[in-house]
Amino acid sequence: MITVKQTKEKIKKIENGTIVTPLGFSADGVHAGLRYAKKDLGVIVSDVPANCAAVYTLNAFQAAPLAVTKESVAVEQKLQAIVVNSACANACTGEQGLKDAYQMRNTCAEKLNILPHHVAVASTGVIGELLDMEKIVKGIGLLSPSSNKEKAEEFQTAILTTDTVMKSACYETKIDGKVVTIGGTAKGSGMIHPNMATMLSFITTDAKVEASVLQDALGSITNKSFNQITVDGDTSTNDMVVVLANGKAGHQSLTPDHPEWNSFYEALRLTCEDLAKQIARDGEGATKLIEVNVSGAHTNEEANVIAKQIVGSNLVKTAMYGADANWGRIICSVGYSGVALNPETVNVSLGNIQMLENSQPVSFSEEEAKAYLENDTVEVYVDLQQGNGIGKAWGCDLTYDYVKINASYRT
Amino acid sequence: MITVKQTKEKIKKIENGTIVTPLGFSADGVHAGLRYAKKDLGVIVSDVPANCAAVYTLNAFQAAPLAVTKESVAVEQKLQAIVVNSACANACTGEQGLKDAYQMRNTCAEKLNILPHHVAVASTGVIGELLDMEKIVKGIGLLSPSSNKEKAEEFQTAILTTDTVMKSACYETKIDGKVVTIGGTAKGSGMIHPNMATMLSFITTDAKVEASVLQDALGSITNKSFNQITVDGDTSTNDMVVVLANGKAGHQSLTPDHPEWNSFYEALRLTCEDLAKQIARDGEGATKLIEVNVSGAHTNEEANVIAKQIVGSNLVKTAMYGADANWGRIICSVGYSGVALNPETVNVSLGNIQMLENSQPVSFSEEEAKAYLENDTVEVYVDLQQGNGIGKAWGCDLTYDYVKINASYRT
């Protein structure tokens, strides 16, 4: 793993970058009519078949588009396009749902004049309803992908459901002296939890990297980024992260043995973490991003478990909404995380305001704490003082608007 | 296990029964001044030392009163009194907290002229603040326990925090021709989840039963009742269930070999289930009780896991609040419960309205479903059709008021 210093030197955040910033990618998003007015169908295209990697929801009920995408990827671990609709998840739709996902894939392949198994399919929205295939087919006909930033934003908009903002991240590094760019987008704001909750993310890069190597990197990075966010603890039927690496940057093929492998890995990790945090901040009804940092655990895995337990607690989330420095709820979450720990040595701080030292309250200014908790980003620090394990997780506060949005989602 | 028919014949619910209905118990509740006006300190007393059983929170941070109660019980598995305060949990209070819990125990023993190790101590309320011992000691001095029903209700009131109603249940059966009564009370409405969430329950009986036998029964029953309710998934530092069996009913000592053991077990189970459902219904901000019934699992344990996963889902809970027949969220919860299952054979009904058959949507009347979901009790049925395992769990809807209560609990 490269150090932070090296990261700063070698990796640059591209503020206005998108999925079409890496060489050889184009995109589009259109209004197919699945929703009343919002764009609801989009595509990302690579000029050439790209090596790919993907991770999927662990929900036992996987939606039809996941089956079709897995089948596409299995043929030669290459993809050239990803076609995505919002409004309808095509989940719990049986035989007909599967036929529809195949039709969506094949229609897109025909439209772009590429092989069907080079197309991935993704859907997000209400579960248990069939896709309106007439609209999907017509919508695919309207797609006109290009590498304009505006087109990327139309894609980014088309994949949203209850999200309030588009999500986008772009990082650049150098490999063999060549500029390598990674661009990503994501959707997701509810049903967000470990292991690919209702969340889609699509990442493009012009790096050259074998599919199996890319898959290992994506798996490891997902566990530190997308799988460490939670909005409501619900893991959906449809989620996936797909990375396309089309090799257009022109460097030697990357493996973990390459001296600059870590620069690529870290740029990909930063892209995923950036998107994950954007999703958490845009959690349904959220007013703030909560970042929990756990240190002093026996292992990184245990630190991650505790961090996610804290950030997923409804009581912590409501306290954050109320700007209430209720550290009791934080320590309580630590205690029921299932991780064996010494209950006598825990330190807790909100921002730089310490509240608990060796599991005992220390006096602090309630006013100062309240002021800190009114920021739009709140950092929680928990140090178990029992080992060297560290972990992070991200989430958001639980608000009236979360209830409002979810008590009336279908209507 | 006795059948339902036998249960009906042999076990009677006593509608107005309380913890003082079994022979030889008295109680009281007073205003010690920990809260502005509400009663906040109470005691249950047995005329004679009673055999006891107890289960405690699994939270790694166990509050001081639990340590003291465990020490009392360990001496001879007998208790004669339980002294309880609300408003302050005496958790994360270190050495001083432990001293305070001992002082609370000893003051109560002195007041009642019984042995200190025959006294259990329980606290519930805010974490991280010290008990005001002057008020506790003064309050214990005010206690004047008797076996009037009014006194039992004063106890029931004194232990409440954010609860909106007192909880009470009472069942009667016959052993060796003698009437045996079980009475119970509980508090808890938030931070309610598996394994003794912020929940206290105290159960009295005049049955004669060895402590070790009672402990086994309580452990088994707790897993089917108190541990199958969830309000917000948070497990607290303070929770316990204590059963006192003083033997005053005058029958032969009960063991599982006694021909009428099942009558006692079932009466105790009904008492616990009744209280658990009252807690779930009174969940913070709740407008309705949700009961989830899972059948067709490989084992009862797996059925229980799935039932609790469903009833704990924020998305299911908000849909119930909105009277939205969103079975997609139910099936989604089944899918991420971690239980291995065949995703093709699941049936889902709300009440008697079927929505999913073999994992496929069936048409139903949305209006009828909405009307059903506006009841104050909603039953969810999930049949996996994969085995004979059955399970149940109880919870409540997630509402604006839940957020309101918890965004401002300390203030």
UniProtKB/TrEMBL annotation, chains A, B:
The keyword Cell inner membrane does not apply. The lineage of its organism: Bacteria, Bacillati, Bacillota, Bacilli, Bacillales. The record marks A197, T198 as: Cleavage. Its main location: cytoplasm. NCBIfam families: ArgJ, PRK05388.1. It is found in: Cytoplasm. Heterotetramer of two alpha and two beta chains. Belongs to the ArgJ family. This is Arginine biosynthesis bifunctional protein ArgJ. Catalyzes two activities which are involved in the cyclic version of arginine biosynthesis: the synthesis of N-acetylglutamate from glutamate and acetyl-CoA as the acetyl donor, and of ornithine by transacetylation between N(2)-acetylornithine and glutamate. GO terms for molecular function: L-glutamate N-acetyltransferase activity; L-glutamate N-acetyltransferase activity, acting on acetyl-L-ornithine as donor. Substrate binds at T161, K187, T198, E284, N406, T411. The record marks T124, G125 as: Involved in the stabilization of negative charge on the oxyanion by the formation of the oxyanion hole. Its EC number is 2.3.1.35, 2.3.1.1. It comes from the Bacteria. It catalyses: L-glutamate + acetyl-CoA = N-acetyl-L-glutamate + CoA + H(+); N(2)-acetyl-L-ornithine + L-glutamate = N-acetyl-L-glutamate + L-ornithine. Keywords: Acyltransferase, Amino-acid biosynthesis, Arginine biosynthesis, Autocatalytic cleavage, Cytoplasm, Multifunctional enzyme, Transferase. GO terms for cellular component: cytoplasm. The active site is at T198 (nucleophile). GO terms for biological process: L-arginine biosynthetic process; ornithine biosynthetic process. It comes from Priestia aryabhattai. InterPro entries: Arg_biosynth_ArgJ, ArgJ-like_dom_sf, ArgJ_beta_C. HAMAP family: ArgJ. The keyword Glycoprotein does not apply. Pathway: Amino-acid biosynthesis; L-arginine biosynthesis; L-ornithine and N-acetyl-L-glutamate from L-glutamate and N(2)-acetyl-L-ornithine (cyclic): step 1/1; Amino-acid biosynthesis; L-arginine biosynthesis; N(2)-acetyl-L-ornithine from L-glutamate: step 1/4.
